[in-house]
Amino acid sequence: MQNLNTTESFSMLASREEYKKSKVYFFVKRIIDILGSLVGLIIVSPILLITAIAIKLDSKGPIFFAQERVGQYGKVFKMYKFRSMVINAEELLDKLKEKNEMSGPMFKMTDDPRITKVGKFIRKTSIDELPQLMNVLKGEMSLVGPRPNLPKEVGNFEPWMRDKLIAKPGLTCFWQVMGRNSIDFEDWMKLDIKYVKERNTGLDIILIFRTVKVLFGDENAK
Hints:
Layout: H1 7-14, H2 23-43, H3 45-58, E1 64-70, E2 76-82, H4 89-93, H5 117-124, H6 132-138, E3 142-144, H7 151-154, E4 170-172, H8 174-177, H9 185-198, H10 201-215
Parallel strand pairs: 3-4
Antiparallel strand pairs: 1-2
Helix pairs in contact: 2-6, 3-5
């Protein structure tokens, strides 16, 4: 996979005192990630099966959607999701950019016409994100960490925003439990960097439990 920046430049950034964490923290975090993703995949397996069938019956195209995202230290990886849009969604994006409701380089739109019927439901309930448990198991993501951005979004980051790339991206973080689409892009980046500075095992566990509360039925999920 390609990298958006050199390892050396990120090493210099990570060496700053405010980002240093103990080896014990990273070891415990990885154990939690492995056990959490394995248990999670077992528990949600019926949901995964039902969702896969529903997507196939609802619209043409593959069940899963793999998209390049920027991970830790700028490493690009394939992030998995259930497909929630029509197969030519990227081609239709140019016609919708003027209706963007999100500040910064991200695109968000209420009642996006590219979203399928099943897609609307699995986005509202965050079921579309469940395949990312495989990314966690593979070590590309963590259960808790800044949400990974698209390469084109990272390309438009202000220098201070790139600090979020020090941490391994995750399924959930402050943004997911504090408003999601109601938070503008710059505030989202600030929350991600707040996590990078403050992360510890206790905080990770708190964010996991807070995420479970909003997972099925978050009014800010779109």
